[in-house]
Amino acid sequence: MQHTLSSPSTERVLEVRIGRGTLVLIATEPGSRPTPPIQVEMKDGASVSSHLRDMFKSEKLLSGVFDNAVVLADAPTMLVPEDEFEESDADQLFNHTFTGHERDVKCHAPLEHLHAIALFAIEKDIQTVLSDHARRCTYLPVCLPVWEHYGRSSSITRQRLHGYFHDGKIDIFSTSGNRFKFCNAFSATHSHDTLYYLLNAFTQLGLKPSRDEVVLLGSVAHQQWIADHLGKYVEHIVVEPLPDKTLPLDLTLLTNRPQP
Predict the structure, then answer these.
(1) Cα 167 to Cα 74: distance, rounded to the nearest angstrom
(2) What does the pLDDT look like over 225-238, one tens digit per residue?
(3) 33 pLDDT band (50/70/90 cuts)?
(4) How much is the pTM?
(5) What is the edge-to-edge ordering of all strands in the sheet holding 179-187?
(6) Which of 135, 206, 150, 157 is nearest to 180 (CA)?
(7) Which of 43, 75, 167, 251 is the most exposed place for a label (fewest CB within 10 A)?
(8) Which residues contact 250 (CB under 8 A, 6 or more apart)?
(9) How far is Cα 76 from Cα 96, in angstroms, rounded to an integer?
């Protein structure tokens, strides 16, 4: 994959997660395990790039230059079938789908197993700051590690609808035959709305309440309420426990993925 890191025994690696109002940075020195995450809440009115500059100045673990930086960004993202993607058309396609990002850099990342390309936008200032501190930078949408990991799961008897809670929203997706059947993001602020989004997607996909299942990932305050009420309509509800309760699921999957 394009975003696979080299072995940490030979490179100094930085992993960055840019969330809604939060920043998480994890540094890994050659031959060592990742350092404890550095997490900050971003102040209202201050840009992500200014927070990053402050962190690089104030945090000793972030001093010097990294060989490689992998950046997970909670950014507007669209999926394009890999056989329909043309890099030369990416900017126009994205701006036609999402407004207000005309000045942002359009990035793309492959989901080879799912035969899709994730197309998303990153602010230029963020790229400028990170390029000053890393020789190579790879940008990914926050959901990509989750899509990769859970998009591979399959069941002979059941189809699955996944709902990933993160950054005040829920990303709902379903895959079949190594292809996306459904993928969209919704606000998860109100529990009743979230329940509606899940049930509506479940129904639109023609899934069977007595056979298929809904898998809830990540964490949100009213997650158990949603699971309990989903259970009134869908027989099989799975609430996946977080492998690391101190980090978002996407960053945990990125950090712990197998190295080549």
Answers:
(1) 8
(2) 999 999 999 999 99
(3) confident
(4) 0.93
(5) 179-187, 169-176, 160-166, 213-218, 236-239
(6) 150
(7) 43
(8) 17, 72, 142, 143, 144, 145, 146, 164, 166
(9) 13
